[in-house]
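Listing 4. Sequential folding, example run.
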Amino acid sequence: MNKNLPTGIGRLLAHIQDLIDTGVKAVLRPGGDTGSKKKKKRFFNFFSEMGDSYYKTYEKEKRKK
């Protein structure tokens, strides 16, 4: 089997994972105050904080390997 094929597929999957990570992080990032209700803001802040925690832990684990 050609070594370029598995290497290429691995790189492709890494780029796809990075794209998904970037997209999710952008969605979970808190935005400026748009005048939305407090309940809605708390809901998004919860997921924003959860996303930040996930990515901090994810980055630490990636650095260990």
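-- end of first protein; second protein begins --
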Amino acid sequence: MRYVIVITTVTFFLIWDGIYNQGRYLDRTVREVTRIVHYVTSMV
């Protein structure tokens, strides 16, 4: 049941972000995660 709630919440956030913000928050999140992954992998 917890997974259903999490998946539903994420889905509604993605729909809301896409409709009202043209995906601004999702785009920023992906850019930050990519930057962090590059930073961590370059340290190794």
